[in-house]
Amino acid sequence: MEMKDLKTLLESSEVEITFKSLKSGRTITEKCSLNKNLIPEGYSFKQSGESDSILCYLTEKKRWEDIENSTIIEYRVSK
Looking at the whole model, is its pTM more than 0.85? Predict the structure, then answer.
């Protein structure tokens, strides 16, 4: 899985990401985005393509989540 591809998808749409929680070990699926129309107004940031994690906005829970790349099981554009 290429994290730069995921980041590009997040910037343009809502993406369903399935990942394993580092705290509980549970498998979690959340709708996430970095699209300016889907995140709270006033947020602007750049993420390093070399980072071990990706910060994204959980669109249904309305909060930010830092997801470690190695815990991501799969992702797809949300319908």
Answer: yes
Upper half-sphere CA count for residue 76 (Cβ side, 13 Å): 4
Task: Using the CB atoms, write b or e for 49-75: b if 16+ within 10 Å.
Answer: eeeebbebbbbeeeeebebeeeebeeb
- For residue 62, which amino acid is it? K
SS3 71: helix
CA distance 38 to 40: 7
CA distance 62 to 52: 23
One pLDDT digit (tens) per residue for the chain, 79 residues: 677 889 999 999 999 999 999 999 999 999 999 999 999 998 877 787 778 999 999 999 999 999 999 999 999 998 7
Query: Are 54 and 6 spatial neighbours (Cβ–Cβ below 8 Å)?
Result: yes
